[in-house]
Amino acid sequence: MSFVWLRLLAALRHRWKALVVLAVVVGIGGGAAITALAGAQRTDTAVPQFVSYSLPDTGGFLFGNVSSPPLTPGIPADSLALAPAEQRVVQLPEVAAYFRAPYLFLSQSRAGNDPSQVNVFGDADTDLYRSVDRPIVVAGRLPQPDRPFDAAINELAASGQHLHVGSTVTLYAYSYAQITGGALTESSGIPVRPTGPAFRMHVSAIVRFPQDVNAVVPLVDHQGVAYDGQRNLYTTPAFLPRLAKGLGVPVQQVPDSNLVGVRLRHGAADWKDFAAAVPKASGGLITFTNAGNVYGINQAADSAQRGIHLDVVALIVFGLLVALVTLLFVGQSIGRQVRNQAGDFAVLRSLGADRRQLVSTEVAVSGVVGVVGALLAVVVAIAASPLMPVGLARQAEIHSGISADPRFLVPGFFILAALIALAAVVPAITASRGATTGTEDDHAVAPAGWLPGWLHRGLSPVPAIGLRFGLEPRRGSAGTTASGLLSAMVAVATVAAALTFGASLNSLVTKPQAQGWNWDALVGNPNDQSDHEQLTAAQLARNPDVGGYAAFAIIAGASQGTATIDGHLIPFLMALDSFKGSVHPTLVAGHAPRAPGQIVLAEKTMESLHRHLGQSVGVPTPAGVLKLRIVGQMVAPSIGDIFTNGMGDGAWVYGPQVHRVLGTSTPQSTTEGLPPTVFDMFLVRYANGVTPAAGLASLQRQFGHDVLQYVPPADVINLQSVDRLPYLLTGLVVVLGIATVGNMLVVSVRRRRRDLAILKTVGFVRRQVAGVVAWQASTVGLVALIVGLPVGIAAGRLAWNTVANGIGTSSATIVPALAVALLVPCVLVIANLIAAWPGWSAARVPPVMAMRAE
C-alpha cells in the first residue's frame, strides 16, 4: 500500500498539469451529460406535474340550454347561487370542487371589429382558479373574488397587447339581444358594433394555464383570425352581477352560466358513479354530463406531451453522446499516459514491484482524476440546471431555476468517477505485462491482413506505404488505430444520417400537402350555430379568385367533443360537401368518400381500430349505428384551435349522408344541449394564377377576419423545434472523430519514427514523407466513407421512418444526393488537413536524430 501511495504522490507531483486538464474535461463533459439527462427527466415530467398542480376539472354537466339558461324563481337577479337542481348535484359526495366560467360577449373595440381582442371568461364561483383549474401566476396576484373590476390575463394577451400588471383594459358589452340573436357568430364579414355598457378592468395578474402550453396557438394568433384567438382575460365572481345588470337580465340568464364544471375527488375513477347519480340528484332536470375537462386541459396536455417527447429523446441522446465523447477522449489520454510509463514499469519491476502494484498505481491516478472531475461535473450540472427543461416543457415548469436532483447527481458522480478510474486498467495491464516479460516491441508490426496487400498492388511507393500505415498498426498502437478508424466511420455515418433525416424533415415542413392541408384557406366561423352552406357557397361562386371549394362540418373536435368508431374515442371527425373541384385533406391511399356508407381514416386511427381498406366500422348516430366501409387513408390536417390532433388521428365521412342522418340541412341544438352539427366552414383553393396574397385579400373582403391560412400541426412545430439537434449531435461526433484521428496520426508517427527514418535514408524527401502521412489519413477517410455512407443513409432512413410513423405522416424519406456526394471530398480534405501537422513534424526530423532516439 505504501508503494502505491508513494507512486500516486509522485505521479500527482510530476503530471499534475495534464491531470488537471483531464479533470476539467471530465467536469465539463460529465456535467453537460448529467445536465442533459436530468433535464430530460424534468422535461418529461413538467407537463404532468403542471396538470397535477392545476387540479383540473373532471368534466361538467349542463342545466337546460347553453344559449338560453333557465330562470329559476326565487333566486334574486344579482345572486350567483346555483339553481336547486344544480346545488344538489354539486353536493354529491364525489364532488371536491365546482365552478361556472361562462364565455362573456365583450369587445375591446367600440366598433366591434378588432380581431386581436381578448376573450373574456367569467367566474361565478370562488373555487375556480384556486381549488380547480388552477394556473401558475407569472406576475402579480390572482384577483380577489369580491373586486368586480380586477382581472387576470394570460401571457399571450400580455405580450400581444403589451399589457402588464397594473394595466387597464376597456371592455364594451354586446346587448342581450345581440348575444342571443346569433349575429355575433355569423361569417358575414360585417363587424357588429356592441351597444351594451362599457367596463374598465384592471390587470392584477398574468397567469399561465396548462392549455397555454401550446406550440400552435402563437402561430394562429399571429394571423388575427377572430374565432381562433387565445388572448384571454379572466374576471371575478363580483363582475358577473355588474355585467348582468348592465345587460338588464338576471345573472342566471347570462349565456353559458348553466354549464357547471366539477372536480371529482378521485378524478375519472369517480365519473361513472357521479354521472349515474346526477339524474336522481337533480330530480331528472339534468341528464347531460360530459366527461373530460370542460376547457380541454388534459387534451392540451396530451398534445404538448406528444411534442415534448421529441425533446426528451433528443436530450437523452445528447447526454449519452456527450458522455461517450468525454469518456473516449479522456480514456485515450489516460491510456497514452499509462503507455508512456512503460519504461518506468520495467525499472520498478526490476526493483521488486509486482504487476498488481503497477496496475493499482495507475488506477489510483486515474481515480483521482475521476473523483475530482466527477465533483466538478456535479457543480457544473447544478450551475447549468436553470437551462432545463427545454421547449414547451419550460413553459410548464412550476419551479424553474436551480435544481439539485440527487437521483441524477449521486449516481452520476459515482458512475463517472468509476468509469474514469477503470479507463486505466487495460492500458496498465498491457504495459505491466511488457515490463514483466520484456517482450513489448514498440516497433513490431501487427500481422498483415489480406486487404492492405491487395489494395496497394500497382501503387507508387508513397500511397502504397501510406495505405499500409493506415490499415496495419504498429504493435502497441492497434487500439489507437482501431479507435481512429471507428471514430471516423461513426462520424461519416452520423453526418450522412443527419443529412438524410434533415432533408426528409425539410420536405415535410415545407409541404403543407404532406401535413394534410391540401387547400389554401379555410373560411367561416366554427362558433356559428347556423348553417350558411348555400349562402357561403354562392358567395364563393361569385369570387373569380376561387378555383375550388368544399363545405366543411365538425362532427367531433374542439367545439363538438369526441365521437366513437367501433367503441374507440375519435377526437377528429369531419364531413365534407364538395361543391367545386376536388378540395379535401391529402389522401395517401384509396379515394374520398363518394357515397353514403363510406369513410376515410387516418393512419394511426386505422391502426388503433385494427382495420384496413375495404373493411367496415360502426359509427353511432342519432338514427342508430351506421356501418361504413373504409375507402381511403388520409393525413389528418391541423386547423388551428379547431383540430390540433396528430396527423395520424381522425376520420372523414360523406357530407350529404350527415344531412340525411340529422334529418335537416340546418339542424338545431339537441335536447341535451349539444351544439348542432352544421356546415359552417369551407375549404378553399385559389384559382390558377392567383397569388396567396391576392387570394387572401379577396376572401377577407368577403368574410372579414374569419379566414384562416395554413397552420402546421403541433407535431411538425415540435419537430422544427429540435431540427438543429441532429446537426448539433453530428458536430460533437465530428469533433470526436477529428480529435481521435488526429491522435491516431500523432501516435502513429511517433511509433513509426524508425520506419520514417529508414524511408529517408533510402531516398525519401520531406515531401514524400509528409505524403505518406497524408495517404495514411486519406486511407482512414476512404475506409470511413466506404463503410459510413451506406450505414449512415440507412440509419437516417430508419430514424425518419420511425418519426414519420410516430406522428402519422406518410412523408417519404429524402436522400440528398448532392449533399452526400459533396461529403466525399469534404472528408478527404479534412483528413489531409488533420494530417498536415503530424506529416510536417515527421518530415522535418533528421534520420540520425530519429534513429538515435530509438
Walk me through this protein's architecture.
- By secondary structure, the chain is α+β, with helices and mostly antiparallel strands.
- Helices cover 49% and strands 15% of the residues.
- It is built from 27 helices and 24 strands.
- Strands 13, 14, 17, 18, 19, 20, 21, 22, 23 and 24 form a 10-stranded mixed beta sheet that branches.
- Strand 15 (563-565) and strand 16 (568-570) form a beta hairpin.
- The two termini are 35 Å apart.
Largest beta sheet, briefly? 10 strands, mixed
Helix/strand-derived category reads: alpha+beta
Low-pLDDT segments:
437-451, 664-674
What integer value in Å does the Rg equal? 35 Å
The total of beta strands comes to 24
Features:
ten-stranded mixed beta sheet; single chain; 27 helices; eight-stranded mixed beta sheet; elongated; 24 strands; 854 residues; alpha+beta
Short structural summary:
The protein has 854 residues and is of the alpha+beta class. Helices cover 49% and strands 15% of the residues. It has 27 helices and 24 strands.
Helix and strand arrangement:
Layout: H1 2-14, H2 16-54, E1 59-62, H3 84-90, E2 95-99, E3 103-104, E4 106-107, E5 119-121, E6 136-140, E7 150-154, H4 155-160, E8 168-173, H5 176-180, E9 198-208, H6 217-223, E10 232-234, H7 239-247, E11 259-264, H8 271-281, E12 288-291, H9 297-340, H10 342-350, H11 355-384, H12 392-396, H13 406-422, H14 425-437, H15 450-455, H16 461-471, H17 478-509, E13 521-524, H18 533-541, E14 546-556, E15 563-565, E16 568-570, E17 573-580, E18 587-590, E19 598-602, H19 603-609, E20 616-621, E21 624-634, E22 651-654, H20 655-662, E23 679-686, H21 692-703, E24 707-708, H22 714-721, H23 725-751, H24 753-761, H25 766-807, H26 817-844, H27 847-853
Parallel strand pairs: 5-10, 7-9, 17-22, 19-21
Antiparallel strand pairs: 1-11, 1-12, 2-11, 3-5, 4-8, 6-9, 7-10, 8-9, 13-23, 13-24, 14-17, 14-23, 15-16, 18-21, 19-22, 20-21
